[in-house]
Amino acid sequence: MSDAPIGIFDSGFGGLTVARAVLDQLPGEPILYLGDSARQPYGPRPIAEVREYALEMLDQLVREGVKMLVIACNSASSAMLRDARERYAGIPVVEVIFPAARRAVAATRNGKVGLIATHATVTSRAYDDAFEIAPHIELTSVACPRFVEFVERGVTMSPELLDVARAYLAPIIEAGCDTLILGCTHYPLLTGVISYVVGDGVTLVSSADETAKDVYRLLHDRGMARAEAAAPPVHRFRATGDPDVFSAIGRRFLGPVIGYVESPSDTSVFRLTP
Amino acid sequence: MSDAPIGIFDSGFGGLTVARAVLDQLPGEPILYLGDSARQPYGPRPIAEVREYALEMLDQLVREGVKMLVIACNSASSAMLRDARERYAGIPVVEVIFPAARRAVAATRNGKVGLIATHATVTSRAYDDAFEIAPHIELTSVACPRFVEFVERGVTMSPELLDVARAYLAPIIEAGCDTLILGCTHYPLLTGVISYVVGDGVTLVSSADETAKDVYRLLHDRGMARAEAAAPPVHRFRATGDPDVFSAIGRRFLGPVIGYVESPSDTSVFRLTP
């Protein structure tokens, strides 16, 4: 058992969907989230640079004593998973690509799997590599660079977004994919529009949810969970860029908190006779 | 377009997973959540009583001018969906059973679908009815009454929970189900342990996520969404029982909010040179 936090790293905000899935499944575990918001997005940077930045971030998490590292960023995962495993021997490292790829292989009925992701992730061919040993899988990859901007603006149903989504997703529909990997940690917040466009017959695989399942499994199997009776965990969020910007955009990802709860006596309109 | 809130009703807390999925997918829409926490759980009550209570709750939401009703409770859905549609003609009513059943039919590869739910939902045979026109689907239903208690206590990895989960899920594994419906709105918060026990080859269908997709679709197709440029929405939570208890348990469902965000200058341990 260990009271140390789970370290979650992303280039910016997207990894917060992973953080939230971990918080959902492991509400007793403290997390330390580190977003490199000063240097995001990593997508357009050369792989060597992504690797350098990402290892610098993970070094910081390790110095803070995290018990596990979660690389909650597809671009970083594809650039430096192997380096991280070598560098931090003894600290388990979880990333976002393999959990989603595994789930897609299990879910597809016709072997036609779609991938939507950033330019960087698509061109890294990290998912193609993950599917290397499953030759019956036919992967259709589409870069959807503009989705991130809509998520961060909180726009999920504008005519403009629907046009963009229809254009991005046309090759997925044309290929007859029955399973679609949301290969960018921002995309779970566009499930509504994506499902609307591809139809509800298509199984959506969220790399955030699948990664949280891996974190759960690893924590259990290695006996690293926090004691059940411990005090409520304290979560920490750290950003290399402007903390206020991080806080504002981050709210879109972690959602609102329940503030004041009304009761029946609050208003005469509500007359309850329970 | 309409600025009116989306009304979400549940017997207590579970519907908050539906509320959160709606908030994720439609961050611009105000919601009015009504939990009948004074009279929960509905599960053990006779259907006629569930119907009476649930219609009373929906009446209140309608009086508050909601533009759509979401019955975020499996027990209530199975008891009074038809009544609600008749009673509130003109206001779209979304419930949690059909969206999940539809998704399961699309997802299964071998036709063997599992259902875990409360006693009330299993004995109502509401999911059996939903699958009536899909005779190739072989449904294995298991009531998991104790899961709710673990969720509300925030326990997701204790040896006791794992024992309970293994016992509950044994018939699902034995039947060879490749798809499992989480037929109670509490269960998405146990995805980690459920997936751990049944294995990651099984596709989990969350009625919360599927219901949110239906809300998205309906709102779009009927042109009922709020204007994009409108001010941030105000969400309201109302409970028939103790507001403080609701607020405390509710936090487990909606998750923590990002409070203070650290920046590199906060501590000398973190020296960043971006």
UniProtKB/TrEMBL annotation, chains A, B:
Pathway listed for it? Cell wall biogenesis; peptidoglycan biosynthesis
Q: Which residues form the active site?
A: C73 (proton donor/acceptor), C184 (proton donor/acceptor)
Question: Alphabetically, which GO biological process terms does the record hold?
Answer: cell wall organization; peptidoglycan biosynthetic process; regulation of cell shape
Q: Which SUPFAM superfamilies does this chain map to?
A: Aspartate/glutamate racemase
The lineage's top-level taxon is Bacteria
- Summarize where substrate binds, as residue positions: D10, S11, Y42, G43, N74, S75, T185, H186
- Gene3D superfamilies per record: 3.40.50.1860
- Protein name according to UniProt: Glutamate racemase
EC numbers listed for it are 5.1.1.3
The keyword Isomerase is annotated on this UniProt entry: yes
Q: Tell me one GO molecular function of this protein.
A: glutamate racemase activity
